[in-house]
Each structure stands twice: as C-alpha cells, then as structure tokens.
Amino acid sequence: MAGRVGRLPAPPGPFRPEFWRSPIRGPWLTSVFGLVLLIGIPLLFVTGLLSYASYNPGLSPFNDETPDKGILGFYLFSWPTQPYWLYRLLQGVHVTLGVVLVPVLLAKLWSVIPKLFEWLPVRSVAHGLERLSLLMLVGGVIFEFVTGILNIQLYYVFPGSFYRLHFYGAWVFIAAFVVHVSLRLGRMTRALRSRSLGAELRTGLAHTLPEPPDPDGLVPVSSAAPTMTRRGALGMVGAGSLLLLVVTAGQSIGGRLRATALLAPHNRNPGSGPNAFQINKTAAAVGVTPQLVGTDWRLEIHGRGPGLVLTREQLLAMLQHTAALPIACVEGWSTEDQHWSGLRLADLAALAGMPDAGSVLVESVQPPGPFTKVVLRGNQIRDPRSLLALRVNGADLSLDHGYPARVIVPANPGVNNTKWVGRLTFRA
C-alpha cells in the first residue's frame, strides 16, 4: 500500500516541481535571508521577554496578563528603575526591529515556498515530524508578526488578551526556530560559502544563472529566463526594510525623526502647550468623566494606621519634587522627557506610616478594566524620581494625561504609570 501511495503522481499546480521556475531561488539566497533572521529573531525574542518582565507580573495578579504562564516565567526578575530610559529603548528596539524584519521574512518565505508544496506531504514518520516543525515555524512566525503589527497599529481584534496570545505564540515559534536552526545551520553555512556576496552584487542579469541542483529542491528543475538578479532581490528587500525603518523608528527615537514616523498611530500632532505630547487612551475612551475627577475627587492613602483622605489642593501644598521622564508604551511609541512635578511616592509611603513599604497598590478612578490597578515594587517606590505627578511642564495635568493625579516611574511601561489615581495602598 505504501509503495502504491508513493507512486501517486503529484496534482497539477504548485505541487509539481516544474511549477517553480525562478532561477534566483536556491540555497544561497535563502541562506542570506536566513542569516539576517538568525541575528534579528533572537534579539526580537529576548527584547519581548524583557518587555514582559518589565510589567513585574510575578508581583501581583493585577500586573499579570498571562497568569497561567507556568514554567515559562522562569526568567522573571525584579524590574529596575535605572537607567530611566530602559523600557523606552527596549520596547523601541523590539517594535522597530519587528517591523523592519517584515520584508526579510517575506523574502525568506518566498525563497522556500516550494518546500511547503512537497509531494507527498508526508512520506515517513521522520518526514512527518520535519513537516510538523516547518508548519510550527511558518505558522508561528506569521502569527507573531501579524499580531504584533496589529497591536502596534491599535487594531484590537484578538480573541482574548493580546499579551497572552503573543507570549505563548513566541514560545511556540522560538521552539520551532531552535529546532529548525539546529537542523539547517550546517547547510546554511555551506550555502553561504558556496558563493561570494561581492561577486553576486557584481553579477548582471545576463549572467544570472541557477545554482547547482540541491537536495532540498529549492533550485528549479526547469528554470525560466531571469527577470531579476540576486543583487536586485537583495536590494529590493533591503530598500523595503530601510523604508519601514524610516516610517517607524521616529516614534521611539523622537526629535526630528518623529515627523517621519508615518506608520505610528500615536505620532499625530498632539496639539500645543505643556500637555502637547502623545497619549495612549483618552479619558473619554476609558469612561473617565469630569465628574469623576472634579471638585469631589479625593486621594486615599492607606498603610499602617488610619488612612488619609486628601484634596488636590492639600497635595499641592506639600513639598513638590520634579523628575524628567519619558512615557513609553508597548506599541513602541514614546515621548521625549517630560518635566513632571508632584509628590515622591517615598514621601507618601512615609506619610502612610510605611517608609520601607515593599509595594504599593495604585488604583485609578476609571471604570474597571485592564490596568486600572497596578502594583509597584519597593525599588520603584523608593526611587526619588517616582512621583505622584500633579503637573507637567509647568502646567496642571490635562484630563487625558491623568488629571488630577497620575503615577510616573522611571523605566516603567506606560500602562503601569496609572492615570486618574484615586487610591494608594502601601504594603509591607
């Protein structure tokens, strides 16, 4: 039976080797794209894991968008507050690199697409396992890139938490990636050595010939006349990545480059004045009305002993401190340093009778939802730049920036810098 099945002819179309005729497709070009991904994807994975650690998910259920991560959270550690720009750099690299690698990824998939249409699809147990790993690899990388790009473009269309889907997807993909690299690294090295990059960059269309036949079947069995050189393919992919870098990176780098970040949804002109910098969600979008933060607003402070209830005027009458800190968010965008003023969290902890507090529960007056509550660590409380901010750039906070009071902490993800704060509970 197995012998008869093995002799079944391939159906017409892409399952037949003669269907794929591009003379530039082959192990060398595939390996060049693979080498770029071999460098970029581990960096993408590591920065993603560190981004998750920055939420301090092991500190409290309020911080943990992936509560059933199990052993996959083995690497988590207490997130530091310095350098203060750490999260801005980390998430900027993660998002920008992910976008820039898209043309390389598409080119790599194009170069190996004949492998996806092998006939028979499964020839043996070993071949079936290889095909399964390939399916996990291709499916995983497409899932990670698509969900990541949708999130940074603010298209929340996920059937559940983006954090959970992206986190698990990353581990599935990286497992398949490691297996694939371990199986193919030797072949990739030999393929890269088989041709000189410099020579290929000097080869014109008339001298663009297919590579010798390869055991993986990437080289066409019946090639067509070339319409593009390998130099042209590399140049087109490189130009695509460069273009995406230009229209994305400015949202993280800032300065004059911010005007070039055309793909950044938060890069639109935020207006003028002291509060003219990017926001994630407006007060109206999360249901914070002027009534919730009007004259009846009070800040509750709890700790050891009876709690305190303070008006904004009473808070402004206390000793004020300043800190120059950016806001940086998971979507990769960030602001330049803004000049915040308000009360140090350490001073508020002392006021609550807990100068050595191990954590603080920060609660917003906004209606219940994700990140309306967050827990900050003791090192975040004690950093002198960690503030309950009342003003920014010399003016009162605007409603969209968290009026009457918000938290601002060095190296903290934007969503953990809670806006519209109504209660602080310091804990041992």
Automatic annotation (TrEMBL):
Q: Which Gene3D superfamilies match?
A: Oxidoreductase, molybdopterin-binding domain
Give UniProt keywords alphabetically: Membrane, Transmembrane, Transmembrane helix
Task: Tell me the InterPro entries matching this sequence.
Answer: OxRdtase_Mopterin-bd_dom, OxRdtase_Mopterin-bd_sf
Q: Where is the Oxidoreductase molybdopterin-binding domain?
A: 289-427
Q: Which residues cross the membrane?
A: 28-53, 85-111, 132-156, 168-186, 233-253
Q: PANTHER family recorded for this chain?
A: BLL0505 PROTEIN, PROTEIN-METHIONINE-SULFOXIDE REDUCTASE
- The name of this protein is Oxidoreductase molybdopterin-binding domain-containing protein
